[in-house]
Amino acid sequence: MRHLSPRTASAVAAGLVLALGAAACAGPKGSDSGSGSGSGGAAGKPAKGGTLTVLNSQPQEDFDPARLYTSGGGNVPSLVFRTLTTRNREDGAAGAKVVPDLATDLGTPSKNATVWTYTLKDGLKYEDGTAITSADIKYGIERSFAAELSGGAPYLRDWLIGGADYQGPYKDKKGLASIEVPDAKTIVFHLNKPEGEFPYLATQTQTTPVPKAKDTGTKYEEHPVSSGPYKVVKNENDGERLTLERNAYWSAATDEERKAYPDTIDVRSGLDSSVINQRLSSSQGADAAAVTTDTNLGPAELAKVTGDKKLAARVGTGHFGYTNYIAFNPKVKPFDNPKVRQAISYAVDRSSVINAAGGSALAEPATTYLPNQKSFGYTPYDHFPAGATGDAAKAKQLLKDAGYADGLTVTLTHSNDKDFETSPEIATALQDALKKAGITVKLQGLEVNDYKDKTRSATKEPGFFLAHWGADWPSGGPFLAPIFDGRQIVKDGANFNSGFLNDASVNKEIDEINKLTDLSAAAKRWGALDQKIGEQALTVPLFHPVYKRLYGSAVKNIVISDWTGVLDISQVAVK
Q: How confident is the model at residue 352 (pLDDT cuts 50, 70, 90)?
């Protein structure tokens, strides 16, 4: 799961960003898809050479494939780490497809999708010229289970037979029996339940090959062995400054996704967002060949840029699977009453929420929990239609039916961080809207860590709070299961099933969809399940964020996929 702020959306987060996808040399493929907004950038055909500068606010910490939550990390890790599968590197919706990377295909499943077999391509090599083997991928996965290398996504631990008890190769020399390597080019995964979306999971950086002889444990991040087009030549201050240069042994013949135009990638992090946008706007010197993968334009900056045609032409628009919403805890009164939850659903003024989130250029109204993208199985519905500004009369009638004819008073918990998705501005907009329906809202603002601690605790969770969820990959599975699968309710850890829904029919449908290896068919059923769950009003979807980012005047071949919503630096050229 990934968390991104509308303003400084880090491309990897407390929950998520994944592997990358590809564009044609002369410009982004699929730029007419309507959902992305890649453009050719600076005039002229992209060519190899030069230095690309990346200006980011968040440091590229833990540059170890075992510790990265997903393979995006602002797209930088995917330049060094190749995985079994990756994302199709095209603009817009086409970029939400999963494609082979190190593997020859998306994997061969057993009849019940509990066994997945992959074959590696010919000619794969590390930066030192040695061959990449299936045993290296097995070892790379196994080391991600080590406590000292924690931080990666939990799926392999949850899905692999024996994964829950495995402690990594430093403690258990035998390794995971559920990963077999019958020869140097074949790797077989044995799962404890059907998982038709394993090709998506195979994009995670944990499937990056790591040669056992070169593993230096917690120091591996200082110089990880490259399987991608670039190698790390310098890592300063735990990812604050990264310098990448070409890996001479990478072959484009084995990699259809990464273009690798620049000779050098200079990643500079820890910068203030306003400084980043000013440097990109000015595009002086090296900044003309610069991009950002984690810093959005704010409302004021966007207004300034929109008024300048030349600057406006250098703004990339991205959509990422992400939903901001109101969460209810039905164990807390009065939210145990469905009519109260429905009343609030009708009372919400989404136009004021959108304004609080930065305006229509930075946020799109949501009435479905799943993001409005085909890959998630998006099925339009609005169970509590109230228009753009809410239906106070309908809300009042529902409150009366619930026994609150004189209104009621509730507390809304949110974060005090203005750059966080649950900001005071959004909370205030909701407070004003609900007042019209006779609902007095008291605001409880918490610092980010306190907010997370309280809203993710099964015992501390408030009855009414602002929440958000981002996709680990573009499918309904990692969106709906953590929030609505009753078997994922965590009593003594981080719990995300805020509504404590444990519906046998919902749980069964999740299992049935997970058996499907036809991802298009699965998407349709995720959409139908979203529509079914939405009737219970356990959440009130508010908006999906939109990302607007500047890039330097000399940057060519802009590709922004719906998988990450950020500029794909594996595609850009500066010559």
A: very high
d(CA 9, CA 98): 23
Q: Mark which of 208, 239, 270 sits at the end of a domain.
A: 239
Q: How many CA atoms lie within 13 A of 4 on its CB side?
A: 34
pLDDT for the residue 329: 98
Residue 456 lies in a domain: yes
Which neighbouring-strand residues pair with 317?
Answer: 548
- The answer, as to whether pTM is greater than 0.85, is yes
For residue range 514-573, list pLDDT tens digits in order. Answer: 999 999 999 999 999 999 999 999 999 999 999 999 999 999 999 999 999 999 999 999
- Give the burial class of 304: count Cβ atoms within 10 A of its Cβ; 0-12 exposed, 13-18 middle, 19 or more buried: middle
- Calpha distance 443→16 (Å, rounded): 28
Query: For residue 215, what is the DSSP state?
Result: -
Residue with the larger pLDDT of the pair 6 and 471: 471
Among candidate residues 273, 278, 274, the one with its CA nearest the CA of residue 294: 273
The first and second tokens of residue 52, run together, are: 């690309």
Cβ–Cβ contacts within 10 Å for residue 47, how many? 12
H or E element, residue 468: strand 464-470
Residue 188 tokens read as 């077989």
**Residue 26 Cα distances to 14, 292, 299, 552, 566, angstroms:** 36, 22, 32, 18, 20
Per-residue DSSP letters for 478-509?
Answer: HHHHHHH-GGG--SSS----TT----HHHHHH
Residue 386's domain spans which residues? 322-546
User: How wide is the angle at C-alpha 465 spanned by C-alphas 459 and 467, nearest 5°?
Assistant: 100
* Helix, strand, coil share of the chain (percent; to 5): 30, 20, 55
The set of residues, in sequence order, having a beta carbon less than 8 Å from that of 97 and lying 6+ positions away, is 21, 87, 88, 90, 375
Report the percent of the chain where pLDDT is more than 90. 84
Question: What is the domain-level CATH number for residue 381?
Answer: 3.10.105.10
Same domain, 229 and 338: no
Work out the end-to-end distance of the chain between its first and last CA atoms, rounded to an integer number of angstroms. Answer: 36
**Positive or negative CA dihedral for 426, 429, 434, 440?**
positive
Last residue within a domain, chosen from 223, 239, 255: 239
Q: Indicate the residue type of 10.
A: S
**Strand pairing class (108-109; 322-328):** unpaired
pLDDT of residue 18: 28
Alpha-helical segments (H) within 283-421: 299-306, 309-312, 338-347, 350-356, 392-401
Residue 530 DSSP symbol: H
Cα 542 from chain centroid (whole Å): 18
Quote the CA–CA distance of 212 and 570 in Å, as a whole number: 27
Query: Looking at the chain, how many residues does it have?
Result: 575
Instruction: Report the candidate in 545, 572, 546, 420 with the shortest Cα–Cα distance to residue 76.
Output: 572
Q: Could you tell me the CATH number of the domain that includes residue 187?
A: 3.40.190.10
Q: What is the mean pLDDT of the chain?
A: 91
Q: At what angle do helices 424-435 and 338-347 cross, to 10 degrees?
A: 100
